[in-house]
Amino acid sequence: MRLLALDTSTEACSAALLIGAETIGRYEEPAAGHAERILELIAAVLAEAGLGLAALDGVVAGVGPGAFTGVRLGVATAQGLAFGAGLPVVPVATLEALAWRAIADGPVLACLDARMSEVYWGLYCADPLRGLAATEELRVGPIDSVRLAGAQRWRGVGRGFAAYPGLGAIAGVAVAPADALALPDARDLARLGAIRFAAGEAIDAAALTPLYVRDKVAATEAERRR
Predict the structure, then answer these.
(1) 72 and 9 within one domain
(2) Domain extent at residue 164
């Protein structure tokens, strides 16, 4: 199986190529210029492997949630590449990619900074067919809206914990310093995407849509005053 994965949903910009069990990846946190950098990172992983898009089986796209502009960029880039090469696409949420790196150790609370004093968060457990599965709907809200399910211990992953340290104090959550700084990485998207691809979850590029979770990017003046 040969899959190209990409994500630009957050401060990070990454691309990865999965060839069988081997993964070639590039990851950066550029101050700006995600549109230019993602194309260069994609070209770099393809060049290292000596492959063109036509030799691939599909594209794995990070669809959000995250920064609205970054989410749109990632989806549009994945669609453009897939259309051009006649490839199917596997959508993967950013929180799923975060959870994937830690799911082998047990249930995961994945969390990203959503700005406006809110976080994107989701609860995930291992799943034999899809790699991992959400235990409930992915959500966005203030940190006091984060609620755990069940009595088990959850591993916290994602930069939302660094942005809002109070999240790490939630009973039942353990957060390592490195996990609190984590952002989605295309290498994790590629590995999880391969499982989803094998499970028959690839879709036509035209059907790929962003996962925004919320529909506004800034607080109103009244909300800021409150």
Answers:
(1) yes
(2) 95-180
CATH of the domain at 59: 3.30.420.40
Half-sphere exposure of 115 (CA within 13 A, CB side): 13
Mean of pLDDT values over 137-160: 92
Q: How many CB atoms lie within 10 A of CB 44?
A: 15
Q: What is the pTM of this model?
A: 0.92
Which whole number is the average pLDDT over 69-80? 97
Tell me the C-alpha distance between 102 and 40, whole Å.
Answer: 28
- Torsion angle, alpha carbons of 139, 140, 142, 148, to 10: 20
Q: Are residues 85 and 9 in the same domain?
A: yes
Q: Is the pLDDT of residue 224 over 80?
A: no
Secondary-structure percent of the chain, ordered helix, strand, coil, rounded to 5: 35, 25, 35
Is 77 in contact with 63 (CB distance < 8 Å)? no
